[in-house]
Amino acid sequence: MSNVKLLEVDLSSRSTRTKEINEELQMKHLGGSGLAAKLLYDERAYKFDPLGPDNSLIFMNGLFTGIPVPCGCKLSVCAKSPLTGIWGEATMGGFFGAELAKTGFGGIIVRGVAEMPVYLLVEDDSVEIKDARDLWGLDVYETCSQLQKKHGERHQILCIGPAGERKVLIAGIMAGGSQTRAAGRTGLGAVMGSKHLKAIIVKGTSQIPIKDRERLSAYIREFTPIIRTNAKALTDFGTAGGVMGVEANGDLSIRNWSLGSWTEGAAKTCGQRIAETVFVSHYGCFACPIRCGKDVRVEVGPYAGSIGHGPEYETCDGFGANLLNDDLNVICAANDLCNRLGLDTISTSGVIGWAMECYEHGLISKEDTGGLEIHWGDGEAILKLVEMIGHNEGFGALLSQGVKRASESIGGLAKEFAVETKGLEYAYHDPRAFTSMAVNYATANRGACHLEALGYFAEQGVFTLPALGFDKPFERHGAENKAEIAYLMQNFMEVFNDLGLCKFLIRAKEAIGPDVIADWIAATKGWEISGDDIMKAGERNFNLKRMYNFALGITRKDDTLPPRLGVHDKKTGAAAGSIPYMGRMLVDYYALRGWTPEGVPTKDKLKELQLL
Description:
Blueprint: E1 4-10, E2 15-21, H1 23-29, H2 32-42, E3 57-61, E4 75-80, E5 87-92, H3 96-102, E6 107-111, E7 118-123, E8 126-131, H4 140-151, E9 156-159, H5 162-165, E10 173-175, E11 181-183, H6 188-194, E12 197-203, H7 213-230, H8 232-237, H9 243-248, H10 263-268, H11 271-276, E13 279-283, E14 293-297, E15 307-309, H12 313-318, H13 328-341, H14 345-360, H15 366-369, H16 379-390, H17 396-399, H18 403-410, E16 420-421, E17 424-425, H19 436-443, H20 455-460, H21 482-499, H22 514-525, H23 531-550, H24 563-566, H25 582-593, H26 603-608
Parallel strand pairs: 1-6, 7-12
Antiparallel strand pairs: 1-2, 3-4, 3-6, 4-5, 7-8, 9-10, 9-12, 10-11, 13-14, 14-15, 16-17
Helix pairs in contact: 2-21, 2-23, 13-16, 19-21, 21-23, 21-25, 22-23
């Protein structure tokens, strides 16, 4: 039997111990956020205050993290979310997870609150809780620089910036310094800040056991050329290379999701334009054959002249089309500020878009903003708002609570402009363009998350649905069979989170599917399981997270789209006239899930999934 060793840290008592997860539990939940969900559900962590000492914060590697499986780099961070009040989850790539695996630990569970700022140093089986008072107040880049000077450049570091320290509800957890990788969503940086935990540093020397290295090497040699060929656009231009194509499909968020076309602006704010102007170098995560990351020059703002991680697609849309800002330099500067301050770029740009629309309609005035005018496309205002949010100061203190709370504070018409589900701001793919995404956004466990299904990839043929046993007709703006696409893709993408795999692997189309993943598990762990077992594990963990949320009162009433996306149609662009038929699709979806019409997993389904 091969057990996984977890590190448990109690900051209140400054004590540490190890916990072992047996192989049977691994086979049921794999790793990553699935295994974290099992641990958090069993300890009834949903009962606790997200920013209180009892809320466990789990950093969990996927089953493949640190193993040279293509793109086996992801670390999941899980806790009750202070932003949404429900299941909180974020993932990050880079090298931290792989280095953690080399220490011999598969994850870290943090509880309690330190009396003063601390950081955690893990070097193989040596664990120390160290004084971080000299780091408190530093931004992410400064923190990483200081810690590497103290402990060595080969140590991998994740940390929070001022946003997390000040418990900004849209704060993320960052790794890699200026080559930033972020566990951005659901406000988990605020949880880390509430515990006075500034950083975690890891350095390991152990070799990760692999059952059949020769078999695994053969799979890697076969698969790597396929993903490199199919993901070449990501290699060349990063995720931001998709901005123009997304706009052409009517899938881009424009002016807080109110417009359908922005062709010239998209051309000015895309990865191709980055390559022509501010591009410096490529960046890849551990075991990555794609290397979609880009480093860029920051040309404007308080850090003009510096080099940092370039904006991803979501950031280019969020600080670009979403705010009617076609200045790429402002987008790069806003991204850099978010990385330094430790902010989620999706939620930050989303709440700024909401504020600009409220300002336009007179719901927010200069008196509210401290004299700052916040008009569409105003680059100086955008950068100023990012700083105010990150420091939780002035008008930024309202925006730092996220769009749901901010809109409730203003009230009235302001709620109509709030684009969120279950309290999480929307990722920048429009469910009116690919309606399977409407089902996913409404039912995704952490709120308005595109990555829980990536249905727009499936609908465009970027991923081949027959690999999941689906071969039925559908129309992009229709309702027929869309619930099944969401259901299958949610189960499959859940497996990626549990294994620690980057989801861009699905660009390999028919070359990647549950059977292939089962073969990789056999080579690495020696478990002879089937593709059906893989999909069942994804379904099991998705339902487990739903049960966590159900314990907090989440049912059908919460599986909704905001008015902007569920009632209003775009007047121009490729998605003009499309309004998702949510009633029909949710009925189909609940039936496929084996849930009640109220969206609650039935006892029969939970028994089938070995959750009862």
